[in-house]
Amino acid sequence: MQEIKLSNKSHLLYIPDFIQANKIPSLIEKLKSESQWRDDKITMFGKTFDQPRRVAFFGSPEISYTYSKIKMIPQGWTLVTKELTSKINEIYGHDFNTCLLNLYRDGNDHMSWHCDNEPELGIDPVIGSLSLGQERDFFFREKKNPENKISLSLQSGSLLLMLGKCQSEFNHALPKRKRQNGERLNLTFREVIKVASPD
Ligand SMILES: O=C(O)CCC(=O)C(=O)O
Description:
With 199 residues, this protein is mainly beta. It has 3 helices and 15 strands. A hairpin with a 6-residue loop joins strand 11 (136-142) and strand 12. The longest helix has 14 residues, at 79-92. The termini are far apart.
């Protein structure tokens, strides 16, 4: 386990081998086949684009989460998403109650700069992020000083925990990569503390 300090109030825990290597291929297949994948559109600067990844969202039915301006209604837990969430909660003492899957089909799929600061997550949310498949670069950039950039490489089977003020002080992104062109599955774990309004 590696602790990475981003600032006095923001740090990361990186656990490179959270999932044993020989378990990863069947886990990826199970997660892919049991997910109800969404291909959403995003609007930026008045133009509409295909979201550059596929997503699926798991949690209890009363929870909804508005992410990238898209309201996500969870499909019920599958055994595997429930077990992974419970395992992380037990080991690291969190209360994650949702799991968002991001499927990056190739190096062209990506995640733009953002932070996870939606009101449903409360103040200073902890975010867990499990990576399976293609290793990809992952960046943090300080909001008040964008020159301060930290780069990690997220290996298959690794778990990253973003702690403290990571979401208020930093943005993060998973850039396009020509040389990291394989498929990658990412699971992000959040505790949604407020049930969103029905509209
Ligand atoms: O795919 C990743 O590692 C990043 C996912 C992410 O930033 C998010 O879901 O908010």
